[in-house]
Design brief:
binds beta-D-fucopyranose
Length: about 475
């Protein structure tokens, strides 16, 4: 390949020169349990915080819940067949904690584990690598009633659950992820309250962040002790790409503050065994971090086999008057209460450019930036994009086909950014499109469609969108097909 330009290639360059990925490369799609499974009362499953939250009036758009979702619990065979049709060689899904360990304590429920065994066997039979995320936000409600993530015991409960699932599936699942986006669990769940359990307590959110870190560390050790050594353990972070509005020292300081609260608070302890000093001082008015006990940081810093990065859009910040609060860096609803404890003097701005249906600016340069950052800061650690994708207002045409050229352009641009990062030395091993199917998009309910496959929620009929066919060709050939012109 000839020398790549510094800046993003132009549209015409993109459609003329084929962008290829050296094998082996994982071409996957990602989902999470509560967003797709449904069957919330079957086979001994008990409520998670998302069942409670979504059933609480006013919490989700239109009061929608994951009770039925896309009925994947009953249709998983059909869904694996779709993945095979899409040429995927990897699938990232999450295990529902209250399905396999109702109430978050005590013995495993075999029926729950059997569902995941059947799913994994189906995937392996189709030549698709299963990658399990242990925690994608569905804490058993009973653990929340006992205090939730702000309580230390929840981290121990997670480690027990991790061992249980590792024991049950470790013989057939090689790829493991402890937590999905602990930032959302801690700060959307306990500070801004736009996610379950919907609490708005800044101090609790910082405690939650630490206990999520501890859960990751203890869970990693528990998994390793329960599983064959060949299996790999990673975490998926929604590390924000934080950009200052100007080079003014006050704006640079604002960006630093948000970077600590979005990124350093997790990758500091996980990768380097310490919280950033600047985070500790900025949050000192809220907490002395006395909940961090001796030995915790060593327990959190476990050697990892890979790092998962979820990327949607960058954040643009500046210094602001003390009464300003802004939306979170990568969406999921604006909040009355800030998800950024100790950063009330930071303002968020919309990055210029086209936006998706979520209002998130489309900026593939952020993905390149993110991959290069971790290439520098975590040298030697293989990287995976464990989520990337976009919601658009997809609708079937008169023939029932769903044409989504915007999503194809989005995927093309972001995969091109991944390819540039590879050329620039990033060790990227795979890409998981968010998401396989349209699904329950948390507080937004079913209104935001992220799937490569369209779901008619009235009939549960699945229809691959044109982006699914485009992605299938990419997965089969390892090269990006040209962007369609409309
Ligand atoms: C991520 C979540 C995922 C989905 C996408 C759009 O933050 O991990 O479940 O909601 O955003």
């Amino acid at each position: 390949m000839s020398e790549l330009p510094e800046s993003a290639p132009s549209e015409s360059e993109l459609s003329e020169s084929p962008v290829t990925f050296p094998p082996p490369f994982l071409w996957g799609a990602a989902t999470s349990a509560y967003q797709i499974e449904g069957a919330v009362r079957e086979d001994g499953r008990t409520p998670s915080i998302w069942d409670t939250f979504s059933h609480t009036p006013g919490r989700t758009a239109g009061g929608e819940t994951g009770d039925v979702a896309v009925d994947h619990y009953h249709r998983y065979r059909e869904d694996v067949a779709l993945m095979a049709e899409l040429g995927l060689n990897a699938y990232r899904f999450s295990v529902s904690w209250p399905r396999v360990q109702p109430t978050g304590r005590g013995p495993a429920v075999q029926a729950g584990l059997d569902f995941y065994r059947r799913l994994v066997d189906e995937l392996l039979g189709a030549g698709i690598k299963p990658v399990v995320t242990l925690y994608h936000w569905d804490l058993p409600q009973e653990l929340e009633d006992a205090g939730g993530w702000p309580e230390r015991d929840t981290a121990y409960r997670f480690a027990e659950y991790a061992r249980m699932v590792g024991d049950a599936l470790g013989d057939r699942v090689e790829g493991w992820i402890t937590l999905n986006e602990p930032w959302c669990s801690a700060f959307l769940g306990y500070a801004s309250g736009v996610h379950a359990p919907g609490r708005t307590d800044a101090v609790a959110s910082l405690r939650a962040a630490h206990h999520l870190n501890l859960a990751h560390g203890l869970g990693t050790s528990a998994l390793r002790s329960a599983m064959p050594a060949r299996n790999t353990v990673a975490v998926s972070l929604n590390s924000a790409v934080v950009r200052p509005l100007s080079q003014d020292p006050a704006d640079l300081a604002a960006a630093r503050r948000i970077d600590d609260l979005a990124n350093g608070v997790f990758h500091g302890p996980m990768l380097s065994g310490a919280y950033p000093k600047t985070l500790l001082s900025a949050t000192a008015p809220l907490t002395d971090w006395g909940h961090v006990r001796d030995g915790d940081l060593a327990a959190i810093r476990q050697p990892l086999d890979a790092l998962g990065l979820n990327y949607y859009t960058p954040a643009l910040v500046s210094a602001a008057p003390s009464d300003a609060t802004g939306p979170r860096a990568d969406g999921h609803g604006s909040a009355e209460h800030s998800p950024w404890p100790g950063a009330d003097d930071v303002a968020f701005h919309q990055t210029p450019g086209e936006r998706t249906e979520m209002g998130w600016t489309i900026d593939p340069t952020g993905l390149h930036e993110l991959l290069m950052r971790y290439t520098r800061e975590a040298p030697g650690l293989p990287l995976y994009i464990t989520e990337n994708g976009a919601a658009f207002d997809d609708k079937p045409d008169a023939d029932g086909r769903v044409h989504d050229p915007e999503r194809i352009a989005y995927l093309h641009a972001h995969l091109s950014a991944v390819r540039r990062a590879l050329t620039d030395g990033a060790d990227v091993r795979g890409y998981y499109l968010w998401s396989l199917l349209d699904n329950f998009e948390w507080a937004y309910g079913y209104g935001k469609r992220f799937g490569a496959v369209y779901v008619d929620y009235a009939t549960q009929e699945r229809t691959p969108k044109s982006s699914a066919r485009w992605y299938a060709q990419t997965a089969r050939t390892g090269a990006l097909p040209p962007v369609e012109r409309t």
